[in-house]
Structure formats: structure tokens, C-alpha cells
Amino acid sequence: YLPQISSIFPKIDIDKALKSLQKNGYYLGVKLSPSVLQKILDFAYSAEMKTDSDPEIKFTYAEKNKAEIKYQQDIIMANYVDPSSRCDAIKHLETDPKLLEIAVKYLGSNPIHIRTILGWCFPANSDTYQKLGKWGVPITSFHCDLDDYRTLKFFFYFTDVDESSGAHICIRGSHNKRNFRHYLYRSHSDRSIIDYYGIENVVPICGEAGFGFAEDPFCFHRGTPPIAKPRLMLQILYALNDHSI
Fold first, then answer.
1. Torsion angle of the four alpha carbons 39, 36, 104, 3, in this order, in degrees rounded to the nearest 10
2. Which among 181, 178, 191 is positioned nearest to 220, based on CA atoms?
3. Which DSSP category does 93 fall into?
4. 41 CB-contact burial (10 Å; exposed 0-12 / middle 13-18 / buried 19+)
5. 3-class secondary structure, 158
6. Residues 6+ positions from 38 with CB-CB distance below 8 Å
């Protein structure tokens, strides 16, 4: 099943990754090489992207301010269309042997690649993001993903990310622990999550450009709107079944 290509991540400890995923719901030991990081940044700064709110709004990173003037709206999120077919380095990540080995062993069977998303979140306050709707991206309320009953997602930051620039937040161990209400509703307030899991299990995931991590999307998690600077992030999702077919 695993493709005959060399891994970008020769130093990943597979057993350590699996133990962390099983216990915590995430594994933080993934890091891109400078060359792969630069290849994807070169693509991101030159390729055209579009907004979710209006797919007809297309622009490059350098054209963002002009696009806001042209279309008379603030642009706070934008994604690249089918980035893996347009960037060999992203395609290599999708089929990387070490990432796939983690996915196979964690999910218990050969996974299906569901989707890859490369996109920007630009600085704005929480109210601006919330106006996009309850399920805008990044989703700013705690939730779990329900693409399939077994999934695994890999994330990579392509900008330096701290708690003021779009950190992903995960609730440690929440993939293994639920109360009844958590099964009934997908989205929950910060207060209800903290009251149940404890503030010590709220984990903001920060890192420099090139930092990556794996996460079981059944863990409660949420995005945070970047305030200080834009965030560029890649997401690669694997599952046992593709329910979109």
C-alpha cells in the first residue's frame, strides 16, 4: 500500500506517535525540512486562491488588498483550489510513507485520502469571524469532526503561529472521554468544555513555520482568529470511508 518514495520525515518515531495519538488525541512530533517548507511557500505566494464566501473572487497573496477594494469586502479567509495537483511538494506529503504508516496503524486499516486544504486566515477579531456563520473556517467554537467513524488529520503551519496568530486548540484526551451531551451536540461553548475536561487539558498548538502535528478529529478542537498576523496552514485528512462519494 505504501508508495515507493522516500519519507520527508525519516526521524518520526512511529510508536511514540501512536502512543501520543491514543492517549492525547494528537502528536506534535512532525516537522518539515526547510526545502519542503520553501517549495510550498513559493507555491502559496504565487498561486491564485479563492474565498469560500464567493468562489468567483480570485487573487494571489500580493493582490489581496486590491481584491478587497475591487470586491468591496474584507477578505479574512481564502483557500487554494486543489493544491496537491498544483504543487508536487504537497502531493508528496499526501503520500509520504511515514505519515501513511501512522494513519494505517492508528486507523487499523488502509486509509482513504479524503481532502487536502491549504488556506490563509487573515487578521480579524472574533466578531468578524463569527459573522461568517457558526461553521465558518476556522470554526471558533469547540467541535469534533464527523467525516467518518475513524479519521486522522495532519496539520502543517507555513507561518509562525502563536496564540495571537491563529493557533489550533485541542482538548487533550477528549477523543476517549465524552459525556452524554457531547454525543448529542457537535458544537460546545468554551465554558462547557473547560468545566468538563479541565483547563489543564486545553492545549493551544503553536509552532514556527514548518511545524506539523497529527490529530484525531474526534477530539474536541477549534480554531482561533489570527489577530497579529496572517496564518497559512495545510490540512490533510484520511479516513476509512469516503462518505462524499
1. 80
2. 178
3. H
4. middle
5. coil
6. none
Q: Mention every residue, 6+ apart, whose C-beta is less than 8 A from residue 158.
A: 37, 40, 41, 44, 209, 210, 232, 233, 234
Question: Cis (ω within 30 of 0) for the bond into 10?
Answer: no
Whole-angstrom distance, CA of residue 88 vs CA of residue 111:
21
47: cell is 498561486
Say what angle helices 14-24 and 97-107 make with each other, to 10 degrees.
40
Q: What is the tens place of the pLDDT at every residue in 197-216? A: 999 999 999 999 999 999 99
Burial of 30 (0-12, 13-18, 19+ CB in 10 A): buried
pLDDT in tens, 154-185: 999 999 999 999 999 999 999 998 776 665 56
Cα(180)–Cα(161) distance, integer angstroms: 34
Strands of 221-222's sheet, edge to edge? 187-188, 142-143, 221-222, 168-171, 202-205
Give the bridge partners for 123, in sequence order.
none
* Helical (H) or strand (E) element with 204: strand 202-205
Residues pairing with 207 in the sheet: 161
| Dist CA 44 CA 169 (whole Å) | 24
What is the pTM assigned to this prediction? Answer: 0.91
Cα angle at 108 between 107 and 111, to 5 degrees? 55
Q: Which three cell numbers stand for residue 194?
A: 473547560
